[in-house]
Amino acid sequence: MQLPAQQVAVLEAASADEAESVDALAAATDLPPETVTGAVFELEEVGLVAVAERVDETIALTDEGVEYADEQLPEVRLYEAALEAGGDSDPVQMGRVIGASGLEGPQVDIALSNYARKGYGVIDSGEITADPDADPSADAEANALETLSGADDAAVESVDVDADTLEELERRGLLERTESTVREVTLTERAVTELMAGLETAETVGQVTPELLTSGEWEDVEFAEYNVEADAETFEGGNVHVLRQMSERVKDVLVGMGFQEMDGPHADADFWINDCLFMPQDHPARTHWDRFALEQPSHIDELPEDLVERVERAHREGIGEDSEGYHSPWDEDFARALALRGHTTSLSTRYLSGEEIGEIEPPARYFSVEKAYRNDTLDATHLLEFYQIEGWVMAEDLSVRDLMGTFEEFYAQFGIEDIQFKPHYNPYTEPSFELFGTHPTTGELIEIGNSGIFREEMLDPLGVECDVMAWGLALERLAMLTTGAEDIRDLHGTLADLEFLRNAEVTY
Length: 508
Ligand code: PHE
Known about the structure:
By secondary structure, the chain is an alpha+beta fold. Helix content is about 35%, strand content about 20%. It has three domains: about 1-60 and about 150-235, Arc Repressor Mutant, subunit A (Orthogonal Bundle), CATH 1.10.10; about 75-140, Orthogonal Bundle (Arc Repressor Mutant, subunit A), CATH 1.10.10; about 245-265 and about 340-505, Bira Bifunctional Protein, Domain 2 (BirA Bifunctional Protein, domain 2), CATH 3.30.930.10.
């Protein structure tokens, strides 16, 4: 009998009395397990082997699980610190106990959310108690972590931990289950007969090559059959990042709505970032609040002198009869200081002033999808750098309805039909409002943007005579609405969830 080489190798390695796993056969034949699986399927089809399948479930601790196995669960550390502080007799101040426990960052929340559930004590109005009868050495989760640490990829049946505890650990992300199909192979009687009679190796070809085609050899060779059921190696190829996909899509939508793209410096003078926006120089955002200052170089070389003069006058005296200005100090050196832009509205001031591409005639529409930088505290909805979808429309007689209509049209392109508006304040717009969208899985309202109609005090010095409505929307927040991500840090930064980025579906 003639068979392809891999099948012959598998038959010779398998046995009639003992079932051998595909992995064992792969080791014995020195073939990759996928190849062995393919050969086994074909041999099964012609009745030369019998295959038994079973699904094995193995479990292993995640990195976080290993960490707690080494250093105790956060709630146990909190309990011990609370006992130490005398929480078994009187409630003690929570801040003190957390400080003494050494718990930091997300571990504090983890400890708090498991503390009462496990009966370690009560947390109420900033105070914590420790139940003297609680016993951390009887903590089922802690004991399970200890049992499981070191037992990597253990079969579920082999570990001495009850199913509820395993489930709880899995829910907390401390444990992962993996299912795999194990196939075991035995030779059939027919195979034994064939082996005794002697097997020959048939040359089969796995791939059509240009050489086979041009030489005409393809007519004589035997092709290996495809087996679409054989397990293949997992292939994790490159993928366009979720945010990149979003940003491309946003640009397409805005271009489709008649907008042109703006471009400009990430590090810019405060003049363009703030002063041109009628932001007073003593505004908290401009002193310490959330600014990344540049040290080297620290100041911009050039600013258009006549514009500087007009902006200064607007700040000091206001524009027109009804406007007062700030009557506050205004210092050109302060305006020349360089910083990473805290919003991309600096691009809008540069374009509106005529500085970038000359004077712009109405009607005009411009946008950018670019990075902005803020010294915020990192959390589920804030990053230190993020993308803003900046935009503005210049035309005669614009109203709030035009602005709302533009957002409705824009967000509808992403399947978001329920945006909500809330009145707001910006020094540079009047009226102003913030935009909110509903998170598709948590149902929470999240802020997705800020907008308004630019004030006279801003537009007049820039030399703009008609109305301009404008906005800054958050690309990451839009991505949270379209992908269902619940934490912005899953999308980018050092904590990004690779699994999520590989598989997330961007819906629009
Ligand atoms: N610059 C504002 C922000 O970062 C957004 C905005 C731009 C608001 C233009 C109104 C007009 O929040």
